[in-house]
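Q: Now give one record:
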Amino acid sequence: AVNSPSSVVIAGDAEALDEALAALEADGVRVRRVAVDYASHTRHVEAIEDALGEAFADIRSQAPLVPFFSTVT
């Protein structure tokens, strides 16, 4: 998802999003729903927090094997 002057993503409770999408469409705004079960930057991720903790419990950080070079100064 990309936020820009001509594109924005909103997240929240499904019922509130339905209302927002309907209001925007009524105003002629092009809208589409992003196919996700939850937005990781909202409280909805709390419902899967334990499952994520278990799934990623064995992951450990380490130095990368492939060097990363940036063209940004």
In short: The CA atoms of residues 22 and 31 lie 9 Å apart. The chain is about 25% helix and 0% strand. The two ends are 26 Å apart (CA to CA). The mean pLDDT is 88.
